[in-house]
Amino acid sequence: MRGLVAVVALALALPGAAAPSAAVVVIDPGHDLRANPRTEPIGPGSSTLKIKDGGGTHGIVTGLREAELNLRVALRLRPLLERAGVSVVMTRTRTAGASIGNVARARIANRVHAALFLRIHADGSLDPSTRGTHTLYPALHRGWTDDIYMRSRRAARLVQGELVRALGFPDRGLQERSDYTGFNWSDVPAILVELGFMTNPTEDRLLATPAYEQRAAVGLCRGTLRFLDRSPAACG
Length: 236
Hints:
alpha/beta, globular
């Protein structure tokens, strides 16, 4: 709880500290050390409830937890964006405790009026041959996502393209989702990237290496800067 308070305090303080023209990107490394089975409304005013966090997947070969992979990539992405002049807020900086849930994550992005709410995940499947990278964005829902739909879709397209180029995994394309709490509560453009399948032996082994974690960070950086109408060259 103390860590969450610190993150929220930073998020609240950031707009006043940043230059008026500085873009803010909220990086959200998905999941945490433990799942959170408590429930929350799928969208504002909804009676439909979803669990806050199912806990994520893990590497079929390496045993690496998705939460840890997500954080490793996020911590590599943060300095790349900062060197490009982008202000960064992280929803978490360590893997410890139960997940705060998706409403809380979206609210962090909303408080700082983020230019992009970038959610980092990796995928899992019952079929170990399934592989590839894809990016999710909010489906159009009047009153929830209609104000961020077009910008989120554009961000998803640009980030997906750069991420596929960086990782070299099969391109599984884009997908709209109406059932993602973190999307429905977001007042700012939001996307969720699935780097690859940790249940695929090839992608699991590669994503667990520092080289591929850095590749993922560079791809995310380049796509984010393109969305912000900035040169991606600053990402390296």
